[in-house]
Design goal:
With about 300 residues, this protein is an alpha/beta fold. It is built from 11 helices and 13 strands. The protein has a 7-stranded parallel sheet with strand order 3-2-1-4-5-6-11, with helices on both faces. The mean pLDDT is about 95. Bound molecules: NADP nicotinamide-adenine-dinucleotide phosphate (NAP).
């Protein structure tokens, strides 16, 4: 298959491109951060230039996976107009163009669309109730996509892994700081379902192969606090977990509202794929193996 990946320089985009190119032809859309990536890179800005149609006309993909977003919660609060264009309007335009051309479209959404008030997990059937600009614009993006392209996959994700900047993911945050002997805080009152980004990427490709469509939770099957995640990372990497102080997110100084319970059920996905999702410990083990094998340096080497 020929796959177009928008946001190819992002944490998900770059790892997805590297996973996908093992079996498919990959074209990454990038604003200019990537150099010497091992897949074809097309320069383009989704907010400017000739727009979605010209990108699709020149690339003619079979599948399009939209990993581009304004994904920083604090930046979304500061630039709500930009967040709306990138997280809502652009996904709708991409979905509409894909529907017209028969391109199977995947839109990446977020676990943050729920308010986290439930005491247990959320399913795809639960009504979302976003708390901030990021989550509101992402939920509107899901709806814009589904309205024009019911065949599209909308994937609510949460992942960690190695990024181009070396500091995009929570996993990198703990590894970088603990390796440097620095004290950090870990939130005890934010529960989430982290998945190694390479597992997220492989699952998305499998979903496309199986021609799935609709809304799915594509994240880790095990829920834990961000503090617990830090402790697990420290143990896997042989770093000092005592450097991590348990703290409430309210004490962090972050301004964007965050859901406290991001425990999303993955039952629908595992049922439709016909197998269990990878265990958290398997992902963390692979995260450490990648570290030992120089994968973080390889990824950072693709940066301009
Ligand atoms: N990280 C997580 O755990 C997490 C959790 C929930 C949901 N998600 C969702 O997963 C998706 C990918 O997230 P990520 O963590 O990989 O984000 P990221 O690392 O911030 O990457 C975002 C990508 O979007 C690109 N982009 C931004 N503005 C653009 C524009 N105007 N035109 C073209 N490309 C543009 C960025 O390009 P530049 O590099 O040039 O800025 C970058 O490649 C997003 O939809 C996000 O909402 C992520």
């Amino acid at each position: 298959m020929k796959i177009l990946i928008t946001g190819a320089s992002g944490l998900l985009g770059i790892n997805l491109a590297l996973e996908a190119m093992q079996e498919h032809e990959v074209i990454g859309l990038d604003r200019g951060k990537l150099k010497s990536a091992p897949f074809r890179v097309l320069k383009g800005d989704l907010l400017h230039g000739n727009g979605v149609d010209s990108v699709l006309n020149s690339t003619q993909p079979d599948w399009l996976i939209n990993c581009a977003a304004l994904a920083n919660l604090e930046e979304c609060e500061q630039h709500p107009d930009q967040a709306r264009i990138l997280n809502t309007d652009v996904p709708g335009e991409l979905a509409s163009a894909c529907a017209k051309r028969g391109i199977h479209f995947v839109h990446i959404s977020t676990d943050e669309v729920i308010d986290g008030e439930n005491s247990d997990f959320y399913t795809e059937e639960d009504e979302p109730s976003p708390l901030g600009v990021y989550s509101m614009t992402k939920l509107d993006g899901e709806r814009a996509v589904q309205e024009v392209d019911p065949e599209a996959i909308v994937a609510r994700v949460n992942f960690y892994g190695w990024s181009l900047s070396g500091k995009r993911s929570l996993g990198e945050f703990f590894v970088n700081n603990l390796s440097a002997g620095k004290d950090v805080n870990g939130f005890t009152n934010v529960i989430f379902c982290p998945m190694l980004v390479n597992h997220t990427a492989r699952l998305i490709l499998e979903m496309l192969k199986k021609k799935l469509c609709g809304l799915y939770h594509v994240l880790g099957a095990q829920a834990m606090s961000k503090y617990q995640f830090g402790v697990e990372v420290a143990r896997a990497f042989g770093l000092r977990e005592s450097l991590i102080s348990p703290q409430s997110v309210e004490m962090s100084g972050l301004t964007a509202h965050r859901s406290h319970n991001l425990w999303l059920s993955t039952n629908k996905l595992s049922t439709d794929l016909g197998h269990e999702l990878p265990e958290f410990s398997t992902g963390l083990g692979e995260f450490y193996t990648q570290y030992q094998q120089g994968y973080p340096q390889k990824i950072r080497g693709y940066q301009q």
